[in-house]
Amino acid sequence: MAKEVKIGMAIDDLRLERWQKDRDIFVNKAESLGAKVFVQSANGNEETQMSQIENMINRGVDVLVIIPYNGQVLSNVIKEAKQEGIKVLAYDRMINNADIDFYISFDNEKVGEMQAQSLVDKVPQGNYFLMGGSPVDNNAKLFRAGQMKVLKPYVDEGKIKIVGDQWVDGWLPENALKIMENALTANNNKIDAVVASNDATAGGAIQP
C-alpha cells in the first residue's frame, strides 16, 4: 500500500474570500487523490506564518504549499524544510532567496493590464486613484506595472490625472475603506475611477 502523502498548506490570510475558495478546491482535490492536508492561516502576520511552517515541518509533512504573506522572509524556514527532504511549492506568490521546488502563479502583469483597460474603457478620462495591494507582496508590484502600461499614455496625454496612490496592507477591505475615505476627503470627492488590484480592495473602496 502506498504511503499517505501529508501536505502542509500555509496560507497568508483566510479572512480573504479568495483564499477560502482556493483552500477548498485544493483540499478536495488532494484528498480525492489520497493525500492528507493540514491547513493553517497566518492572518496576515509573517511571524505567525514562519511559526506555522516550522510546526508543519515538525509534523513530518512531505510537501509544503505556501501562499506567503511576505515572500522576503521565509528563506530560513524553507532551508529547514529542504534539509528534511520536504518539497516546497510557492502558490501564487513567489518566495524569494529560497530553494523552492515549484512556483505556480498567473501572468500577474497581464492581470494588471486587464484591470486598467477595463476601467479605461468605461472612464477614458478623469481623476484616477491607484489602490495597490500589500506592499510586501511581489504580485502587487506586478499588477501595478501592468496597470501603468495601460494608464501611462492617457496620463501623458492629460486625459487621466492620477490623484493618489496607496498600498493596502494585507489586502484587507477595511484598510482599503480607510484609504478611500481619506482619498475622497483629500480630493473633495472628485475621483472618477479607482484602480483596485483585487476583489477585497475593490470591495473596501466602493463602501464610502
UniProtKB/TrEMBL annotation:
One Pfam family it belongs to: Peripla_BP_4
Main location: periplasm
GO BP, sorted A to Z: transmembrane transport
Domain of life: Bacteria
InterPro entries membership: Bact_Solute-Bind_Prot2, Peripla_BP_I, SBP_2_dom
Gene3D superfamilies: 3.40.50.2300
A molecular function GO annotation: carbohydrate binding
Ranges of residues in domain Periplasmic binding protein: 19-207
Location in or out of the cell: Periplasm
SUPFAM superfamilies listed in its UniProt record: Periplasmic binding protein-like I
GO CC term, one of those recorded: outer membrane-bounded periplasmic space
Keywords annotated in UniProt: Signal
Family: Belongs to the bacterial solute-binding protein 2 family.
Protein name: Periplasmic binding protein domain-containing protein
Organism: Klebsiella pneumoniae
